[in-house]
Amino acid sequence: MKAEGDQGQQRSLAERLNALFAMARWTDAHGRQREYSTAEVAKAVTADPSHQATLSRSYLAMLRNGSHTNPTLSVLEGLAKFFDDHRPAGTPPITVQSLVTRDDPEEELWRQRLADHQVRAIAMRAGQMTPAMRRQLLKMIAVLDQDDAPDQGTEA
């Protein structure tokens, strides 16, 4: 069924929060990567003076299990700030919008890349091309990518 596949892209707030918990890590005294607990995140969000959110462990647990689905804006701001501060390098920023929208998780990265004038100009030109011309352009880009790849047979 197509509806089943569509649901994979439209994750609930609980699913998005749990994905953020799985992504954000800290290193313990033995060098092991650990996931933040619900209690640790609730305490950190409440202690952060950059926003007005106060968050109990039990309320955050209810957000994570889906029994509460409509947090206040200040709670969303606190959660977004915590997870943005603890996201791995190279991943898209975590914002309130990314917590509440049902966009593709890579949507923010696409927006950032399309903010570049040259990227946007290339995309606009490609949008005016026929499908055959776009295929040819993609082949040319693939050749250019191969030319930019480091030669593994030579030493620098």
List the helices and strands and how they pair.
Layout: H1 2-9, H2 13-23, E1 25-27, E2 33-35, H3 38-47, H4 57-65, H5 73-85, H6 96-100, H7 107-114, H8 117-127, H9 131-148
Antiparallel strand pairs: 1-2
Beta content comes to: under 5%
Helical segment count: 9
**Helix-residue proportion:** 55-70%
Write down the overall geometry: elongated
Biggest sheet architecture: 2 strands, antiparallel
Using only C-alpha atoms, the radius of gyration works out to 21 Å
Total E-strand runs: 2
Strands in their spatial order, largest beta sheet: 1-2
Could you say which structural class the secondary elements and strand pairing correspond to? Answer: mainly alpha
Low-confidence stretches: 1-9
* Alpha-carbon distance between the two ends: 53 Å
**SSE arrangement, N to C:** HHEEHHHHHHH
Mean pLDDT: 85
How does this structure look, described?
This protein has 156 residues and is mainly α. The chain has nine helices and two strands; from the N terminus they run H-H-E-E-H-H-H-H-H-H-H. The protein has helices at residues 2-9, 13-23, 38-47, 57-65, 73-85, 96-100, 107-114, 117-127, 131-148; strands at 25-27, 33-35. A two-stranded antiparallel sheet has the order 1-2. Strand 1 and strand 2 form a beta hairpin. Helix 3 (38-47) packs across helix 4 (57-65) and helix 3 (38-47) packs across helix 5 (73-85). The longest helix has 18 residues, at 131-148. The radius of gyration is 21 Å and the shape is elongated. 13% of the residues are buried. Residues 1-9 have low confidence and may be disordered.
